[in-house]
Design a protein that fits this description.
Layout: H1 6-12, E1 28-34, H2 54-62, E2 64-70, H3 76-85, H4 114-120, E3 124-130, E4 174-178, E5 189-190, E6 193-194, E7 200-201, E8 220-221, H5 230-245, E9 252-257, H6 279-300, E10 307-313, H7 323-328, H8 346-349, E11 353-356, E12 365-372, H9 375-383, H10 400-403, E13 414-418, E14 424-428, E15 431-436, H11 442-445, E16 451-456, H12 472-488
Helix pairs in contact: 2-6, 5-6
């Protein structure tokens, strides 16, 4: 499908008033993705909340906030897949949870990715931070999709050899970061090399923070590895990338994939006890600072007017890292919404989304456009007036017109959300149809019919009144639309695709990795 925005962009003077002699380059794109950062965690959006976020408050003043933005999943791996591919992760074989330690790549090697597409249009591309989308780890056995969570953690891995089929084979020119901070190996990966070499082993150290990775005691670790140093180091690397790329005559795409405030909750010394509430609140403050350093680097490099900055999060705030002290202090990480990270409820997948582009996007503005983070793919290609691939980005719809304050063209009208335990929700306008697991425990729910629940978010944002019995005709209408969208393999119009596995929402999945579709 052609993203038909060129006329509108030129009319608005968005990209340039170019001449044949001196064409103006496309804008840089800096995408900052916080990890387990709730929709209520930016104080400018919820002034009664108690954690100071001065850097993100400033970004809100300078950009547009999308008030109905959603991560495609309530947990991290599926959201990262959706963001980089423009495709819902439940269309893959992964039907619940996230990638475990030493599991193989989730993004197929022939699938178009956002950095890969931008690179084709002249961009330099870099990823700093968390990957969590799989590698082919070197060892006497291949990386496998395992039914048991972290079923490969005790196997032998040859971490002195390159790790293959990671970020540098999925569209990024440069990568520095960690697979994730609470799984092995406990070291950095730069491009394809684990460095420093993890020649030591992880030992539980209570002084490092709370919600520490106790289950990986004895796993490979770099000597002297300190969890509290991860965020400052990634921040420094992201700032360096901006300063370096700002000197280039080519536009750049930087994906700063943060590791905070995801566990382990290990704020650096400068932020310990700074909130006066709890370690998780300190870590949210450090997350704000880290994002702020990256944005500030854009400004100090003199490229702010030529750079789109996007801040968002991969899912809602975590409920197991210190939720109760926050609520007791008067801070509501999910704002007025029900639930938290992992949930099918709004608090699980409704996220902050702030976009800044000086001179193009109105400062301190808001949009109620329905947005999925899968849409960042199409929006970014709209900026460079590029076609979306016919064989990818199946669930990506541009929201550039909304960001620019223009009359809507083809806006998103429906949305699919997915929970940690594989539950689905289908959103159409104000209606949200939830297919809830029948039992509180996932294992007890497997193979059993899900329970449909219907909510009208326009009248009941807290999802407190189930209308399924009162409005059966709405349930059936939404179910039919959802069926059609699953069957077509795509959300955006004009294309059809194929899911990697048979997608089942009427019953709870029986296995973590679904069999390949026949």
């Amino acid at each position: 499908m052609r993203i038909a925005t060129s006329v509108a962009l030129l009319a608005a003077g968005v990209l340039c008033s170019c001449t044949a002699e001196q064409p103006e380059r496309a804008p840089n794109i800096v995408l900052i993705l916080a990890d387990d950062f709730g929709v209520g965690d930016i104080q400018a959006h919820y002034p009664d909340n108690k954690i100071a976020t001065p850097y993100l408050d400033k970004l809100v003043q300078e950009g547009m906030s999308f008030t109905d933005a959603h991560s495609p999943s309530a947990v991290c791996t599926p959201t990262r897949y959706g963001l980089l591919t423009g495709r819902y992760s439940w269309r893959t074989r992964l039907q619940e949870w996230v990638l475990a330690a030493y599991e193989p790549p989730l993004i197929a090697d022939d699938r178009p990715t956002l950095p890969g597409m931008l690179r084709e249009h002249g961009y330099e591309t870099a990823l700093i931070g968390k990957w969590h989308l799989g590698w082919e780890w070197p060892g006497p056995q291949p990386s496998r999709m395992t039914a048991v969570r972290n079923g490969q953690k005790t196997l032998e891995w040859h971490l002195d050899k390159p790790v293959l089929n990671g970020p540098t084979t999925r569209g990024f020119d440069h990568y520095f970061g960690v697979d994730l901070p609470n799984m092995p190996p406990f070291s950095y990966v730069e491009n394809d090399i684990v460095s420093p070499a993890p020649t030591s082993t992880y030992v539980h150290d209570e002084t490092e923070g709370v919600v520490l990775p106790r289950g990986f005691v004895g796993s490979p670790m770099a000597p002297g590895w300190r969890l509290r140093e991860i965020v400052p180091e990634l921040t420094r690397r992201a700032v360096e990338q901006i300063r370096s790329r700002a000197q280039s005559d080519k536009p750049f795409f930087l994906f700063y994939s943060m590791t905070s405030p995801h566990e382990p909750i290990s704020p650096s010394p400068a932020f310990q006890d700074k909130s006066g509430i709890a370690p998780i609140a300190d870590f949210v403050m450090e997350t704000d600072w880290s994002a702020g350093q990256v944005i500030q680097a854009v400004d100090e490099a003199g490229i702010a007017d030529d750079t789109i900055v996007i801040f968002t999060a991969d899912n809602g705030h975590s409920h197991y890292t210190g939720w109760e002290p926050l609520v007791e202090a008067g801070h509501m990480p999910s704002g007025p919404y029900r639930g938290h990270k992992g949930d099918i409820w709004e608090g699980g997948h409704r996220v902050p989304l702030v976009v800044r582009w000086p001179g193009k996007i109105a400062p301190h503005s808001q949009s109620d456009r329905l947005v999925s983070l899968t849409d960042i793919f199409a929006t970014s290609l709209s900026v460079v007036e590029a076609d979306l691939p016919q064989d990818g980005a199946e669930d990506s719809i541009s929201f550039l017109d909304a960001a620019l304050g223009q009359e809507a063209t083809e806006g998103r009208t429906s949305l699919v959300s997915h929970s940690n335990h594989g539950e689905f929700a289908y959103r159409d306008g104000p209606w949200k149809l939830v297919f809830r697991n029948s039992e509180p425990n996932l294992e007890e729910s497997r193979g059993k019919p899900t329970v449909p629940e219907l909510y009208n978010l326009a009248e009941d944002i807290a999802e407190s009144k189930n209308l399924a019995e009162e409005r059966p005709e709405v349930v059936e209408e939404l179910r039919a639309k959802f069926d059609a969208m699953i069957e077509r393999g795509a959300t955006r119009s004009g294309i059809a695709s194929r899911n990697d596995a048979d997608v089942q929402y009427a019953t709870t999945q029986e296995v973590r990795w679904a069999p390949v579709a026949e």
